[in-house]
Amino acid sequence: MKKRAVDSKQPVESDSSSDDESSGEEQDYKGGEQIQVDFEGRIPVDSDFHGIKQLLQQLFLKAHVNLSDLTELLIKQNYIGSVVKQCDDDPESDDEDDMNVDDDVYGITSVVNLTEKKSMQCVSQLRDLLKDMSKKHGDDRTVSKVTEILEDDSHSVGLLINERFINIPPQVSVPLLMNLKKELEKAKSRKMPFDFQHFVLICKLFKMDHNKKKSKKNKNKDPEPEVLWSNAEEEVFQEVADCSFEFCVKDDSDSALGGKWHESDSEMTPWRKVIIFPASKLDDAINKVTTMLQQ
């Protein structure tokens, strides 16, 4: 079993978003229960295909992107990026024991080269998606920037993928991002095509729908945020962005936060925010994330 130097022990809500099965007792669910789970980063392998694809599906929803090809690309470039899995409690376990370990994929952090790999169908579709959505939802400056970085072949652009299930806390992102940074530096030192000038990060947001609030209100509950970031650490990347744009994906999604609404929740609408930032700002962003999560 190949492992990254990424370990994190975090409390996780017991209603895992990775479980798609419904129960007849859903109406009795109260939410908020937590269990303590050890996570670790591992090198993506072929058996992770369906888990990775499921994570990509919750990000791209109904977008016209070949997610099977994109998943295969992420697995093939296994020298870059990590998948998040539950730790094996037995330190003496070896490859023969892996079949007895929970092998679910809980998250993935990686990068796809949108410039060098543009001949691949899935990457070409990603490029078209970014250009089309920026024209529909971005201002003139944003459209110009997106076109500039994608059409200049001497300008390498990486799609930063930072996906996990909603009940995995943001603290796990710090070792994953730091490990990714080290892998990118190592790849660059070997003259591999991971010397980026810009990164693109697609974030999942949820905005309060004031017209469709739940009828039951809890007066003792703190006010709910107007905007909720599915991955809290991604809000920090706004601070280093050259430009960004966002759009509603309500018609593409019928899920809440990848889990279930609690009875007292206000209804929120899913959005996507695309952030474009200089690769030189990655260190700064990771440092800001680390500081934020230590508070």
From TrEMBL:
InterPro entries: BCP1_family (IPR025602). Residues 1-36 are annotated as: Disordered. Residues 1-12 have a biased composition (Basic and acidic residues). One of its GO terms (cellular component) is nucleus. Residues 16-26 have a biased composition (Acidic residues). Belongs to the BCP1 family. This is Protein BCCIP homolog. It comes from Frankliniella fusca.
